[in-house]
Amino acid sequence: MFFHSRKRLIAVLCVIAIAAGESAHAVDKVSVYGLFKDKAILVIDGKQRMLRSGETSPEGVKLIRANSKEAVIEIDGVQSTRGLGTHIGSRFAEPESRTVQIYPVRGNLYTIIGSINGYPVNFIVDTGASFVSMNEGHARRLGIDFAVEGRPAMSQTASGVVKIYIVRLKRVKVGEIELTDVEGSVHEGNFPTEVLLGMSFLGRLDIKREGGVMELRKKY
């Protein structure tokens, strides 16, 4: 009787050990997609998850805390601090530097949170835009004195020809990629409604798409 009970106990322990081993390798890749106060958007093995501080995803990734600059996540009892745009491989080593992955939302629209001159910005990735483009309201919020520092020009848009100002942006950052001295354009009025991450930034990177995911990589 004792012998059989012991065999059952060993069998149960083996199942638990196997399950624990499978759980430890269940998550293959985690990307930090968005950061906010006390919550973060993570992409875990291709699935987007919004987690609040203290919550654990169905895949077993726990968000310890978060702010607009970084998130502390826990995987299999191991905590690590990650910035926007970083991603972790299957063994959760240090993230690949200077590489950002962007997942599409609302069809084929690619958006990502970054910064201009240290101020947070929600970008729409637009390979058809020549510059990092914004409206005059965006520029004022970012402290860009476009009327004084900018160079007046004209631009053809879907609404017709509009007046713009060409400016130099000291720093533009997306994830771990930061470029300095980036050309930008400020449009008079309310167009564009979101800041466009155009080719003055993207043209200095290697861009590839695979399975719907856009990857940005710094060339040097």
List the defining traits of the structure above:
eight-stranded mixed beta sheet, SH3 type barrels, 17% helix, 220 residues, elongated, four-stranded antiparallel beta sheet
- What is the CATH architecture descriptor of the largest domain? Beta Barrel
Mean pLDDT rating? 83
CATH topology of the largest domain: Cathepsin D, subunit A, domain 1
Structural class: alpha+beta
Strand content: over 45%
- Domain count, please report it: 2
Major beta sheet, specifics?
Answer: 8 strands, mixed
> Number of DSSP strands?
18
CATH superfamily of the largest domain: Acid Proteases
Radius of gyration: 22 Å
Helix count?
4
Tell me the span between the first and last alpha carbons.
69 Å
Cα shape? elongated
* Helix percentage: 10-25%
Regions with little confidence, pLDDT below 50 for 5+ residues = 9-25
Query: What CATH first level of the largest domain would be assigned?
Result: Mainly Beta
Written as H for each helix and E for each strand, in order along the chain, the element string is: HEEEEEEEEEEEEHHEEEEHEE
